């Protein structure tokens, strides 16, 4: 059997979606992505596509991203680009998405975003905490599967996994690793079980939403799983940029439990460990600062 290359797959998908005469009339590189090569494809019939390619060895990367985007497409939640196809030819991987024409923020952008995130977080599952299959957060693997206990899931699959990675990559001294282990063992005292497993974007910072053509929020580039909604909210505060009206609208629609502020940085330890693993020692100080707050 001959392998279908990513380019052949893309041409076939274009013909299926837009008719046999449809051709690519131009391609334009899009900046902003940290990991993949992202492009806008304009077609002969005037349609546009968003196409992401990856040449790394992360096989299954885009199948997992597609599954995440499809899970996020909850009625009443933030808009999510439709998945039009994905393919892995053994060398290249490709993800084809509905093209989001960038707009300018509508006047109620942040209120709408807050209300829509509350709706997303009310989408639950009876499977427990996790997701079907692993995915990625940035270029790092994110381990999922399902566990019945949130605190154990967060300790083992989130903090524990990143800690092991940091040790194996030589990013962490033994003293900090010891503090991190102490933090893990104290998670049941630091964090609380949620009211339900919430559907999470998983990597909700300012680079992972877009503004759609009607001025509305659009979620992109997720690291989806079911977990405590405080984890998503915490990340919005890590690098900032989300306006107060986002939080007030969210809280009105789905109030956070008291003590969230004390728990917030514990959730962000996951992202700081991931940054340490991805970008190196400049993040060690941030990791240590969070650990000092809790141990
Ligand atoms: P990466 O996985 O490399 O981080 P992203 O998914 O963040 O890539 O996409 C890179 C950039 O492409 C984004 O910052 C955004 O500006 C743009 N983009 C992402 N998804 C779409 C889309 N569906 N339509 C149009 N532009 C998009």
From TrEMBL:
Keyword Transferase: yes
Protein name (database record): Fructosamine kinase
Family designation: Belongs to the fructosamine kinase family.
This protein's record includes keyword DNA repair: no
Gene3D superfamilies recorded: 3.90.1200.10, Phosphorylase Kinase, domain 1
Annotated organism of origin: Marispirochaeta aestuarii
One Pfam family matching this protein: Fructosamin_kin
PANTHER family: FRUCTOSAMINE 3 KINASE-RELATED PROTEIN (PTHR12149), PROTEIN-RIBULOSAMINE 3-KINASE (PTHR12149:SF8)
GO molecular function: kinase activity
Keywords noted in UniProt: Kinase, Transferase
